[in-house]
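Hello K.,

You asked for the raw outputs rather than the summary table, so here they are, unedited. I folded two proteins back to back in the same session to keep the settings identical. This is the first:
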Amino acid sequence: MRSVSSLVKENIKALKPCVHGGEVLDVAAKIGVRCEDILDFSSSVNPLGTSKKALAAVVGAFGSVAAYPDSSSLELRGVIAGHYGVAVDNVIVGNGSTELMYLFAEVFLSRGDIVVMAAPTFGEYERAVRKTGADIHFVKLDSEQRLDVNAFISAMSTGAKMAFICNPNNPTSLLVSPQDLKCILDFALARGVLVFLDEDFLEFVEDDTQPQSQSQSMISCIGKYSNLFVLRSFTKLFGLTGLRVGYGIADKEIIDVLLSVKLPWNVNCLAQAAAVVALGDVEHLHRTWELIRREKEFLLRGLQGIRGFKVYVPDANFFFIDIRESGFTAAELSQKLLMYGIMVRDCSSFTGLDPYYIRVAVKLHSENMKLLKVLGKVI
């Protein structure tokens, strides 16, 4: 028999696992400490964790574990549809938002197709596209790490079939305005380009009084843009990280195709029960928004006072920091901080970035204070 490697598709051979934040188990094992001894600033999830009501729903769903879950996630899709004022037929639920990224690419891309995305942006988009054999046109962010809308539109004009946009962008934590997004969507619609818009972190964006996610979101534009798929997640704001549940909202025609191809029983019964309740736990969400608003201001002032840090003022719940003047690379600083039990995200694995950027999440006040204290010692 031929070697296994000779049987693997060419576009798969070059794929490697995507680097992520939040790999606490792996890091703890490597340095020989307990997971609870590490403060994880590398993963940008709700500092308050999962709502108690959602956890109670998980416990209440234990009796359903012996049966198959609802393969269509119909109840959860109905709750999501009601929340946004769309039809159930406009909603699909996935095993985390990442499953939907890969499913979308698998359904619509073929070898040789062209996909446009920013550099840097979330790494799983690139991996999902490479898995299909399609080609990527990267559009470098401008000098302030924002999306160059004209350059992005120009890239789409070269025969692109699909575009991926992260808003707010990961790892830069910066928004694309609704006006600029609509310019991109108008051009894409006219050219027949599919747009995958990842709004996973949008629910952390706020003004002085309340979250802006409804006004900033493109979900309300689904009826106008039949080429648009909007991604959301229960991982970040809702803290259902380990249960893996995300969802997408799009034109019925897109959703129907995705539903016909997705894996059966892709979302377990515990995740579905927790997500139904979590979406309606307004008290937990308001406590989260208030904490993020307060601690983001505190952490911004502290980080801006660190020698050699260029801190980009964030729109989401995490900070993107250029540390090149600090005397450390991101890898060096990350290793130094681990000696104090602190994890930050070394961003050197992101396409388009050099080795001098880190990402830091907003956490509880005592944890943010410890981060600033340790950074003061190390730098």
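The second followed immediately with the same parameters:
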Amino acid sequence: MKSLFEEMGGTYRQVGDYFIPDLVLPDDGEYQIGKYGRMRRSYLKEHRKILYTNYVVEGTLFKHLSEIDQACNERMENIVSTMAKQEGVTEALKAADQMEWVRRMNSIRNRAEEIILTGLVYA
């Protein structure tokens, strides 16, 4: 009589007197999880424990975190460039008054990051 694991195509290897299932984790690829992926993982661990556990058990946590990280980075670039155009933060301003340009860009980046964190990371 086969076990459910064997019926689903699983195999075992014998180590001494014990049979150990041959389990393999999915390939995670070469992507390095960035700032937003790590923030999402911390949020899931602390506030959405069941969802985090489901991702871990299914082996899809890395994929989820990399998708979130990439989406956040893309949106950050788009939002910052759009806001900078709307507020007139240009290379001419940078050449004329560097400190004003830095102040405005920091303000834009902070607002854009707040939008991303509430929309993707902490959703």
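The chain has a mean pLDDT of 91.

Happy to rerun anything if the numbers look odd on your end.

Regards,
P.
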